[in-house]
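call fold(seq) -> C-alpha cells
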Amino acid sequence: MGEGEQRDRAEFNMAVSYLNRLNALLMACDEASIRLDVYMWFHSLLAIFRELSSWMKQPEIDGFNADIIKINPLIKQVYDLNTRTGRMEINNELYMQLHELELELRQVISKSKLLMKVADDAYDALK
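ret:
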C-alpha cells in the first residue's frame, strides 16, 4: 500500500472483545486481591495497564511505569520467599502499593469512558 492510500475499514470493530478482555482481567485482579495472591494481583494489574496504555498519554504511562518499577522488587521478594519456603508473606507496604495502582488504573477506565451507564430504555442504549 502506497503512502497516502486509505485502508478499507472493517464493518465491525473489536470494542466488545476488548471490553470482554478488560472485564476478565479485572475479575482476575479482584480474585487475586481477595486471595492475597500478590504475584497474580501484580501481573493482572500489568495486563490491565497494557490494555489501557492506548488510552493514556505518555506522561501517564511514564508515571505508571515508575510505580511498576517501585513495586517489582517487592513482588520478587515475596515470590523468592514463596519459592524457597512455600510461605507467602505480604507486607503492608506492598499491599497498599498494589491497591493504589489498581485504583489508579480503574480511574483510567472511568476517565476513558469505558464504563457505560445503564440506559433506562434498551433502545436508548443502542443509539
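Residues 37-114 form one domain.
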